[in-house]
Design a protein that fits this description.
12 helices; 348 residues; extended; mainly alpha
């Protein structure tokens, strides 16, 4: 699809010349390929063998997550909120302080260069901490391919950063006639990278059960727990939920927006009915009182049985949007009439 859009833009010369085949042919071909691929995917998904393989893959995924969670958590306890804030401040503040000192020690310190170095160091810290946490997670749950891809990307970015500092140092060396700028640039890069790496590894290190985990290790534990909960929920059989019916008044408010003030009135009524139906659900604030109550925007087939709460309804977002659209439209109309009256009072 992206290639089709690119090809179509190359031949776009409207309205002087419109080549239908060249402009729309690649896009239509992409849609045709997508339809064929979707049909093949659905046909493959419905096979019994596919279902068996999916179930086995889910079981294997759950086992990997459970093993990884046991490895990373290591019977440790979660750090308190105060400790998490302190560790986060240390993980970000110490590298920025080191870079600030390096900026002051430069031959010609400037505020612009200092701020730029701080922003670059902040980006480096976030990238390194994300890489360390993700690689620890993938190693724990034994996702070797993802770990290898992330490691390869990290190596590529490291080589790219080294080349940037090396080229900058060589440019300065050509002006000064010495190799000191090259060594200074590489030393600066090593310091900027080694400090967050050391802090990240310390935060990910295994600790005794009597001490709380580091911040990054706790984030890894929480991430694996989230994946494990999702995998277990996907493995549990669940009945498909019936979609809530649309509120008729919300649909009418959208259709009658061009006929004020009917759109505004129907939008207000629709919002009231939908909120009343939401409150009448189990656990709602007005479930016992509003049970069985309905309004003109509900079909007879949607009415609940006596003593049961009213079913939820869709259309709250639509009704809210139409409410604001009608209010803004009426205000614009009134403002326009006022301007016309100010320019030409005789028109009224």
């Amino acid at each position: 699809m992206a290639f089709g859009l690119y090809i179509s833009l190359q031949y776009l010369d409207a309205p002087r010349n419109l080549d239908i085949v060249r402009n729309f042919g690649p896009i239509l071909l992409a849609l045709l390929i997508a339809l064929v691929a979707a049909d093949a995917e659905i046909a493959n998904r419905s096979s019994p063998r596919r279902m068996i393989l999916q179930e086995a893959a889910r079981d294997r995924r759950i086992a990997q997550l459970e093993t990884g969670l046991a490895t990373v958590s290591d019977q440790g306890r979660a750090p308190s909120r105060r400790r998490r804030i302190g560790q986060g401040t240390l993980l970000i503040g110490l590298p920025l302080a080191v870079v600030s000192v390096l900026g002051v020690l430069r031959a010609e310190p400037s505020p612009f260069i200092s701020v730029s170095l701080l922003l670059i160091e902040l980006l480096i810290c976030l990238s390194i901490y994300t890489f360390l946490a993700k690689t620890t997670q993938y190693l724990a749950i034994r996702e070797w391919i993802t770990w290898a891809v992330m490691t390869t990307v990290a190596v590529v970015f490291t080589v790219y950063a080294i080349l940037i500092y090396l080229v900058q140092g060589l440019a300065e060396a050509g002006e000064t006639g010495g190799w000191a700028p090259v060594a200074r640039g590489l030393l600066t890069l090593a310091i900027e990278v080694s400090v967050p790496i050391a802090l990240g590894l310390r935060s990910l290190a295994k600790r005794p059960a009597s001490k709380p985990r580091g911040l990054l290790r706790q984030l890894v534990v929480r991430r694996i727990e989230t994946h494990l909960e999702r995998a277990r929920a996907a493995a549990r059989p669940s009945e498909p939920e019936a979609k809530a019916p649309w509120n008729i008044l919300a649909i009418l408010s959208a259709a009658l927006t061009v006929v004020p003030p009917f759109g505004l009135v129907f939008a207000v009524l629709a919002r009231s009915q939908i909120r009343a139906a939401q409150d009448a659900q189990p656990g709602g604030p007005s479930a016992p009182q509003d049970a069985g109550r309905h309004g003109p925007g509900q079909r007879a087939s949607d009415q609940p049985a006596p003593g049961q709460p009213a079913p939820a309804q869709r259309g709250l977002t639509l009704a809210t949007a139409m409410l604001w659209a009608n209010v803004i439209g009426l205000l614009l109309v009134l403002a326009g009439l006022g301007m016309i009256g100010a320019v030409n009072p005789d028109i009224f």
